[in-house]
């Protein structure tokens, strides 16, 4: 298969060796180019209360239990341990609208690589990972588990759906599949999970906002917004014939007004997504088709050179 047009299993497996240098549990707020000046945060793991014990030299005095200390007339500490399990659910868009790209790869391939990189990273830190992979006709669900076999099932589902994408008019785009998949995600993860939605968010509407709000009540959400540079700025190439797999039309890209309107539509769409997610402090990671995914993810999520960082 042509490189960049379709995802292949061997390449997605190889991304395991590049799944370092970034963290889904950042020590600092995530700042996104699309998220404005307000910081977006991921809660990360919680803390479980373990016990109350006597104070020992070097203990953090912020954890002193003052009520017990007063009752026992000796300093006592509240001891916590970090939660060991944090399931991650990858929601991976492989619909017909993702079968577009003008530079390094198709949006569908960028999404596939992002999901593979994330899956290997989650497994690498010992957490459970699952996925919902969807296109316009089918949905594959892989429940979260902590195993390489589960990651391979996820990658297999992605490659299978990616390989069915065609631009010859044989497929029908169904924007409503985004909401159907988010409803499924709401049923699959109840609380304390990280849900990574990797999509161009085509078909997003008011119900999408409702579903994301519902998901975010008891879970963290990370939005990987996939786009192609050509969607943001139409080049001046003169008359061109373009199509969506069903219809074709000739457009004059030399028309400055047309190019401006094209850019404005894309900007308005991004602004709407940005404002909605920002109000809910959901990090937005802009992922475009022009650069290798590992390079983009490390830049956006922050380099973590220390061993054992998440």
Condensed summary:
It is built from nine helices and ten strands. With 310 residues, it is α/β, with parallel strands linked by helices. It is elongated and about 85 Å long.
Features:
9 helices, 2 domains, Rossmann fold, 10 strands, two-stranded antiparallel ribbon, about 300 residues, six-stranded mixed sheet, alpha/beta
Any overview of this molecule?
The structure is a single chain. With 310 residues, the protein is an alpha/beta fold. It has 2 domains: 9-43 and 85-301, von Willebrand factor, type A domain (Rossmann fold, 3-Layer(aba) Sandwich); 47-82, no CATH class. It has 9 helices and 10 strands. The chain has a 6-stranded mixed beta sheet, with helices on both faces. The protein is elongated and about 85 Å long.
């Amino acid at each position: 298969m042509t490189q960049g047009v379709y995802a292949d299993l061997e390449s997605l497996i190889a991304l395991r060796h590049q799944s370092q240098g970034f963290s889904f549990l950042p020590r600092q707020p995530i700042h996104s180019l699309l998220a404005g000046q307000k910081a977006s945060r991921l809660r990360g793991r919680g803390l479980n209360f373990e016990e109350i014990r006597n104070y020992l030299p070097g203990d953090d005095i912020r954890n002193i239990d003052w009520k017990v200390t007063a009752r026992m007339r000796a300093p006592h500490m509240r001891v916590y341990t970090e939660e060991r399990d944090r399931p991650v659910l990858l929601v991976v868009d492989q619909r017909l609208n993702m079968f577009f790209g003008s530079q390094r790869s198709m949006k569908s391939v960028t999404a596939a690589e992002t999901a593979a990189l994330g899956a290997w990273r989650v497994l690498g830190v010992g957490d459970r990972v699952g996925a919902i992979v969807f296109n316009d006709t089918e949905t594959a669900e892989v429940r979260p588990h902590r195993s390489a076999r589960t990651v391979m099932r996820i990658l297999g589902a992605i490659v299978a759906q990616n390989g069915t994408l065609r631009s010859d008019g044989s497929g029908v785009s169904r924007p409503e599949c985004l909401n159907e998949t988010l409803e499924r995600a709401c049923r699959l993860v109840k609380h304390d999970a990280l849900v990574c939605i990797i999509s161009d968010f085509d078909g997003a509407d008011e119900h999408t906002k409702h579903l994301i709000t519902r998901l975010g009540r008891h879970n963290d959400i990370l939005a990987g917004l996939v786009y192609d540079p050509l969607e943001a700025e139409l080049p001046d190439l003169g008359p061109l014939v373009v199509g969506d797999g069903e219809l074709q039309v000739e457009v004059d890209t030399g028309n400055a007004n047309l190019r401006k309107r094209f850019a404005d539509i894309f900007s308005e769409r991004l602004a709407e997504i940005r404002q909605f997610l920002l109000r809910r402090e959901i990090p937005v990671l802009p992922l475009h088709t022009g650069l290798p995914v590992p390079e983009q993810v490390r830049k956006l999520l922050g380099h973590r050179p220390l061993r054992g960082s998440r």
